[in-house]
Amino acid sequence: MKYGFADRVRYFDSSAVRDILKVVNKGDVISFAGGLPDEGLFPVEAVDKAFHKAICSGNKALQYAETEGLLALKELLAQRMLKKGIEKDPNDILITSGSQQAIDLFSRVMFNPGDVILTENPTYLAALQVFSSYETTVIPIDSDEDGMIEEDLEDKIKTYKPKCIYVVPTFSNPGGKVWSQQRREMLLALAEKYHVVIMEDDPYGDIQFDPASMPDSLAAMDKGNEYVIYTSTISKTVVPAMRLGWITGPHQIVRLIAQAKQAADLHTNSISQHALVHLLNDYDLDAHIETIRATYKERMLIMKRCLDEAKIEGLTYLEPKGGMFFWVTLPDYMNPEALLPIAVENGVAFVPGQPFYVDKKKRSTMRLNFTNSSPELIEEGMKRLTAVLSTVHI
Amino acid sequence: MKYGFADRVRYFDSSAVRDILKVVNKGDVISFAGGLPDEGLFPVEAVDKAFHKAICSGNKALQYAETEGLLALKELLAQRMLKKGIEKDPNDILITSGSQQAIDLFSRVMFNPGDVILTENPTYLAALQVFSSYETTVIPIDSDEDGMIEEDLEDKIKTYKPKCIYVVPTFSNPGGKVWSQQRREMLLALAEKYHVVIMEDDPYGDIQFDPASMPDSLAAMDKGNEYVIYTSTISKTVVPAMRLGWITGPHQIVRLIAQAKQAADLHTNSISQHALVHLLNDYDLDAHIETIRATYKERMLIMKRCLDEAKIEGLTYLEPKGGMFFWVTLPDYMNPEALLPIAVENGVAFVPGQPFYVDKKKRSTMRLNFTNSSPELIEEGMKRLTAVLSTVHI
User: What is a GO molecular function of this protein (chains A, B) (predicted)?
Assistant: First the structure.
């Protein structure tokens, strides 16, 4: 039988992320391709205890639960956000199945086909996939290492009248960069001037390598709780398999997201929610985050040294100030799509930059993950990778 | 600030289910309003063991996982379905966050605004909420206690050229009825004749009170795996808080649902998935289901006796053959919306039938849940309810 599908399936991306995950799982290939935290760092014992406590805390904990999420969890997340200056009413927080679902549900309540979203370029590819599935038009804004460029942003706001500006201002994926305080102020001022909602996606905010120098979260700067919808997750700091994230911002938007969430899946896994409450109460997550930071920083520095020592002419990168990735610009003549199979043959994988760009055009860039390999494997993998980059000229 | 939302939010239902859940949680009211399984029956010890085993089975179990779901779980679900004659390749199964998400993701890949879906009337209200959020048109089909009426179904297929026929053929919510084998064959034959996809929603199939007399699942009858997309869940047989369901059917549809799922939330909670694998391997779920069946059947019979003994003229119902609900037709002059606050004042709650109808018009019907109250509370609650129905004439 021939099926008649929804028009939106034409805009489904045939799933770059899944293809990446397939490469990751190949036997003896050292993969810098994925976006995985190091499972060796997972606080397994604390997670085990937290789930045990959750499951045995009374049968009600295993029953259907409220769509918005557990109040006890929302209160704890509000307290944690407050430490970063983000002041939110727990009732304006909604628990999601990872921040991916937050992006999806926000899109569901905001976007009609043809609506315009402004983004950095490159940006988080799975956000681009979501936006595309809602048949929106994504317009990239010129950026430098401090964030979007004011002139281009204001021009494009005036030209395209966007519904939303989507940004990952702190340790962006794939770039690893941090927006300056001044650019953040500029972004919020333009959002206020032209009445545009900002989505601040903050999955990596806790993975910072130099805690002293952090600018404010946009959500912290939006004192009236009017312009910034903020999402974050525990996937990078506790474990991804718990699938817990949250979204918070203007009351009216969060209320509609709750209605969308109810239709989408009734509520987020509540055993995980109860377990996270226990984990946040019983376990020193901040100390654990310090360990994660130190471990990832060490790996980042090893990868940086390997890149530097290889002295490949025309290869440039920005040292990541946090997060999980190096974003590497290759000499213009290099074609990372053509290089990838050769690299895999030589026992190392990366992600070509293409899917992170709004226009999906080929470019001489690649993303390297440094969190999911041990220092030894980073050394060995980078030896293999830089050998390919030094000798293969395609 | 005034926000510009997506057009679809106009079709969001301001959430009858949530309102119902709020009534449920009031202190000393005996509630027949919810759709909750009895948490006293939850296999807490087995769930606890299964999660412990899952969490301690290696850190990979806590990592990001495949969008489609764990293969080991899909294989076990395929084996369980096979016992019901439903033969599916595990690769054509996708694990969802409850069957609610299955309905949502299926809708996402199938429906454009204005597309027509044929349903029973009344039917599962949260499916109606999903369909409405995709701006579809739902057309009700005349039914009797054996299922949809052939003539009306064929007429409306010809008139409306529907994309899909959505049915809950086994212990429907709210009706509790079972389609006859003959009507199932008729439905499938018409689907084949006119090339319409059937969504078979089967959350209650395991909760049957008389196992001898079950007709075939539509998915079992669809030998070519062409016309029936089937969804089920463990929320009624294990625990709802694990948020696990699945969807299976034509390969092409399931493949697109996987792409939608990736954008929606990357993958379903994988700790829950691993735990369910262990639970299905280590625990006698079928014996547990027998206990659930016996317990719920006893409660259903008590509620039936209370309804019969009250001898309220003009009150009729069909004895449920399984599932969780009585669907009660009241005398025409009665207004269940007006009765509800009086009933709650008198310490008992029910759901007025209205939100289960496609047209949302008021009707003299109510849904009574018998699974979430003990026999004693059913006796007491029914005493209160029948007293109200016998004395209050609005």
Answer: transaminase activity
pLDDT of B21 above 50: no
Of the partner residues A62, A235, A242, the one whose CB lies closest to the CB of residue B42: A62
Nearest CA-CA distance, residue B96 and chain A, Å: 9
Under a CB-based contact definition with an 8 Å cutoff, are residues A389 and A330 in contact? Answer: yes
Torsions phi, psi of B188, nearest 5? Answer: -65, -40
Distance of alpha carbon B132 from alpha carbon B112, whole angstroms = 11
B243 contacts A63 by C-beta, under 8 angstroms: no
CB neighbours of A284 closer than 8 A, spacing ≥ 6?
none
CA–CA gap between residue B258 and residue A18 (Å, rounded): 10
Provide the 10 A C-beta neighbour count for residue A181.
15
Torsion over CA: A295, A298, A304, A310 (sign): negative
> CB A51 to CB B47 under 8 A?
no
Question: What is the C-alpha separation between B142 and A261, in angstroms, rounded?
Answer: 31
pLDDT at A210 (0 to 100): 86
Q: What's the gap in Å between the CA of A42 and the closest CA on chain B?
A: 7
The domains of chain B, with CATH numbers, are: 7-42+287-391 (3.90.1150.10), 44-282 (3.40.640.10)
φ, ψ for residue A93, nearest 5 deg: -115, 140
Q: What's the average model confidence in pLDDT over B362-372?
A: 93
Whether A196 contacts A165, CB under 8 Å: yes
Eight-state DSSP code of residue A394: -
Is residue A24 within 8 Å of A34, Cβ to Cβ? yes
CA dihedral B95, B97, B103, B108 (to 10 degrees): -90
DSSP H helical segments within A161-283, as ranges?
181-194, 218-221, 251-265, 270-282
Across the interface, do A18 and B67 touch by the CB < 8 Å criterion? yes
Q: At what angle do helices A270-282 and A71-82 cross, to 10 degrees?
A: 50
The 10 Å Cβ neighbour count of residue B341 is: 10
Contact B219, B228 (CB under 8 A): yes
The residues, ordered by sequence, that sit 6+ positions from B334 with a Cβ below 8 Å of its Cβ are: B364, B389, B393, B394
**Average pLDDT score over residue span B209-217:** 87
| Mutate which: A271, A279, A292, A371, vs B, most B CBs within 10 A | A271
DSSP state of A265: H
Q: What is the gyration radius of the CA atoms in chain A, in angstroms? A: 21
Q: In the numeric block, which tokens belong to residue A335? A: 């074609």
Other Cβ atoms less than 10 A from the Cβ of A214: the count is 15
Enter the tokens of residue B121.
């009337």
Say yes or no for a CB contact (<8 Å) between B259 and A56: no
Cβ-Cβ contacts under 8 Å for A291 (sequence gap 6 or more): A41
- In this complex, do A241 and B270 lie within 8 Å of one another by their Cβ atoms? yes
Which residue would you say has higher pLDDT here, A283 or B12? A283
* Residues B321, B354 contacting (CB under 8 angstroms): no
Backbone torsions φ then ψ of B222, nearest 5 degrees: -85, 75
Instruction: Output the pLDDT for position A350.
Output: 93
Asked if B64 and A253 come within 8 Å (Cβ–Cβ), the reply is no
- The pLDDT value recorded for residue A172 is 86
Query: Which residue matches tokens 């969807």?
Result: B247
Stretch A39-65: mean pLDDT, rounded? Answer: 95
- Cβ separation A272–B267 shorter than 8 A: no
The string of pLDDT tens digits covering residues A312-326 is 999 999 999 999 999
Residues linked to residue A60 through DSSP beta bridges, in sequence order: none
For residue A17, pLDDT beyond 50: no
Q: In this predicted structure, what is the pLDDT of residue B360? A: 81
Residue type, B39: E
Using a 10 angstrom Cβ sphere, with 0-12 exposed, 13-18 middle and 19 or more buried, the burial of residue B140 is middle
Two tokens, residue B253? 């549809």
Over residues A238-255, the pLDDT tens digits come to: 999 999 999 999 999 999
Residue B142 has φ and ψ, to the nearest 5°, of -60, 135
